[in-house]
Design a protein that fits this description.
This protein is an alpha/beta fold. The chain has four domains: about 20-355, NADH-ubiquinone oxidoreductase 51kDa subunit (Rossmann fold); about 500-560; about 565-625; about 645-695. About 50% of the residues lie in helices and about 10% in strands.
């Protein structure tokens, strides 16, 4: 007997044991099926992705699917053959849903790929051993299928002090672990040695229920000189739960928000430990497992070692299914299992039992009645929950209260439903409630993510608007400053040339007056020559005096006015065009006057005559003020020497600087964006630097 102290488990039930149906014969080797259906998801965590294609030939043990996600487990080909299909296939799940799988048509040869075992694991490092476990795709074979490599990688600050090997197998019908411990005790010990080599725990406990005396004897015989403790536990359901087993062996409860590893405790199923042995000692990946085929509807109940992916129908045929007697087909045990909807579904890494029960063996549940508040469910709950309250809140879909009452601490062992006198399927209510809560949490996560994206976008737009507003203000300030400078320069120029402008205006007025007086005199002289009246003669005398006075005033003003500045060619060109247009307009009006002779046309001709005289006078003045152009070079005149390349380059650089400065000013006036202004400023700076070098 073990000397290790045992603590009582709170709650629990004692369902009728039916283990003798399947543990009376040795483990049988299941026949090789014609077709293997290997799901891409056989573990807790992320699904894998196929690494093979339809038509590929694969070997036994070859890697066919993997995932880059850390919480996942690789998938290997259970036998050699050809990949015939990749896609949705039946899957052993309560929902009956299809999941992606790789279908392999076996070739019957069962040819292994090249294996790489470790010659001496005692000389290997923990990292090397962990890599072998990870490459083998091992996941927990006793429960949810959590990837084993993850469990064997505790944090450095949380070393494992106690390693618990779980051989309790508390479900009433399942005997897969029982027969494994009887027949593979030596491999189990070596597997434990490998895990101990990796974790270096202080204590190693092998927990087995006392209803398995043959297993206890076999394991103790295989211990040898090892100081591992074989602990016999009283038979009670559900002592095989991880947290319940820790409570029995260690006397402490694992908090809901913590993992056993955080307390320095690690649990591993005996089947998982043997898989670790095969991966390290033999180099074999996890491609098969021991599964219990039991139930009174089978002619030959037994435990079989079958390949992962073997259809359930093939195993039932091998065990002699009597379909006429079949009442229910369950994947797993009667307490935590679920009804299997299709026998085409395959065996996966977590398939520990197929129960083919008759109607008498597992009669249909009685119709559910209202809860009578007897409290039996609370008495047997191993997690110390209040099942009746959880049922009440689940009916009302009160997710807040469900979580407040620790719904997710429920391990769905079914003990509450087993003792319920009202036959209420409590576990089903809890499963649905958990699924609803997870769905709501996913929606909340998505909504929060969408909110974060929206807020980020709004902040980005706000910053962009602020940047544009700052650029607009900067452009406005530059424009205002430029206009202020221009206005200042204009004011200075106006102040400097104000008197000159006044003199120019007066001179212009006098020119117009002299021109109009001269025109009036010539017109009167013409009329006098035609008619010769005394009245016209007197008018001529008067106009002659006025013309003489106007000319005298003009001559005096011209003499007093300083010499005009040289007029630019463009101004001269403009004045020529103006004089020409005035002359044309005058000739056209004169022609109309000669044809019609109206007073209106006469007045118009007089005005146009004055305008033409004024335009000609302005052109003459501009021509007089314009600088004389140099005479063309002759043979006797020395020609100007051709500019040198350096002078040409300097001239070109000056022109380039002027053009870029003009382009920058134009962009500033048009309020171009900051990027354009920056680029133009950079080009101007570069051009000015080039000009400075040439200078």
């Amino acid at each position: 007997m073990s000397t290790w102290p045992i603590y009582p488990l709170r709650g629990g039930v004692h369902p009728a044991q039916n283990k003798t149906l399947s543990n009376q014969v040795p483990i049988q080797q299941a026949p090789l099926p014609k077709q293997l259906i290997v799901p891409l998801l056989q573990h807790l965590g992320s699904s894998t992705e196929a690494l093979v294609s339809v038509g590929d030939h694969v070997l036994k043990g070859q890697l066919i699917a993997d995932s880059s996600n850390r919480i996942s487990a690789a998938v290997h080909a259970p036998s050699s053959g050809t990949v015939s299909f990749i896609g949705p296939q039946p899957y052993p799940h309560a929902s009956g849903q299809l999941l992606d799988a790789i279908v392999i048509d076996t070739d019957g040869l069962d040819t292994w790929c090249e294996l790489e075992p470790l010659a001496d694991f005692t000389q290997a490092t923990a990292t090397e051993l962990l890599d072998k476990v990870s490459q083998a795709g091992i996941s927990g074979l006793g429960g949810a299928g959590f990837p084993t490599a993850i469990k064997l990688s505790p944090r450095a600050e949380q070393p494992i002090t106690t390693l618990i090997i779980n051989g309790t197998e508390c479900e009433p019908y399942i005997t897969a672990d029982d027969t494994l411990m009887r027949e593979k005790a030596a491999q189990l010990m070596l597997g434990i040695d490998i895990v101990v080599q990796m974790l270096q725990p202080k204590n190693v406990l092998i927990a087995i229920e006392d209803n398995k005396p043959e297993s206890i004897s076999a394991v103790r015989s295989a211990l040898g000189s090892r100081d591992y403790q074989v602990v016999e536990l009283p038979t009670i359901y559900p002592s095989g739960g991880e947290r319940q087993l820790i409570q029995i062996l260690m006397g402490q409860e694992v908090p809901a928000n913590k993992l056993p590893a955080e307390l320095g405790i690690l649990c591993q199923n005996v089947g998982t430990i043997v898989a670790v042995h095969d991966a390290v000692i033999k180099g074999q990946p996890l491609i098969s497992r021991i599964t219990t085929l039991t139930g009174q509807a089978l002619a030959k109940p037994m435990n079989v070692e079958c390949l992962i992916g073997t259809p359930v129908a093939d195993l039932l045929e091998f065990a002699g299914l009597q379909e006429a007697q079949l009442g229910r087909l369950i994947a797993g045990g009667p307490m935590m299992g679920f009804t299997l909807t299709s026998t085409a579904a395959p065996i996966i890494k977590t398939s520990n039992c197929i129960l083919a029960a008759t109607t008498a063996e597992l009669p249909p549940p009685a119709p559910a009645m209202p809860c009578i508040r007897c409290g039996d469910c609370a008495e047997v709950c191993p997690a110390s929950l209040l099942p009746q309250q959880l049922h009440f809140y689940a009916l009302g879909e009160d997710h807040e209260q469900l979580q407040a009452n620790n719904l997710f601490d429920c391990i769905e062992c079914g003990a509450c439903a087993y003792v319920c006198p009202s036959s209420i399927p409590l576990v089903q209510y809890y499963r649905v409630a958990k699924a609803d809560i997870r769905e709501q949490e996913q929606k909340l996560i998505k909504a929060e993510h969408a909110k974060e994206r929206f807020e980020f976008r709004q902040e980005r737009l706000r910053l962009e608007d602020e940047r544009k507003e700052a650029e607009r203000k900067a452009r406005a300030e530059r424009l205002a400053k430029s206009k202020a400078e221009q206005a200042k320069k204009a004011a200075q120029a106006e102040a400097a040339g104000g008197s000159a402008a006044v003199a120019d205006d007066e001179l212009k007025r006098l020119k117009i007056a002299a021109s109009m007086a001269s025109v009036a005199l010539r017109k009167a002289q013409k009329q006098f020559d035609t008619h010769g009246t005394d009245e016209l003669k007197a008018q001529i005398d008067q106009l002659s005096v006025a013309a003489a006075q106007a000319k005298a005033a003009l001559d005096k003003a011209s003499a007093a006015t300083p010499a005009a500045k040289p007029v630019a060619d463009d101004e001269i060109k403009r004045l020529k065009i103006a004089a020409s247009m005035a002359s044309v307009a005058l000739r056209k009006a004169q022609k109309q006057l000669d044809e019609h002779g109206t007073d209106e046309l006469k007045a118009q001709v007089e005005q146009l005559t004055a305008n033409a005289a004024e335009a000609k006078q302005a052109l003459d003045s501009a021509m007089t003020a314009a600088p004389k152009t140099a005479a063309p070079a002759t043979a006797d005149t020395p020609t100007k020497p051709e500019p040198s390349p350096a002078e040409l380059a300097l001239k070109k650089a000056k022109i380039d600087v002027a053009m870029k400065r003009a382009a920058l000013r134009k962009a500033e006036r048009s309020e171009a964006d900051a990027e354009t202004l920056t680029a133009l400023q950079a080009e101007l700076t570069q051009a000015e630097q080039g000009l400075a070098k040439l200078n």
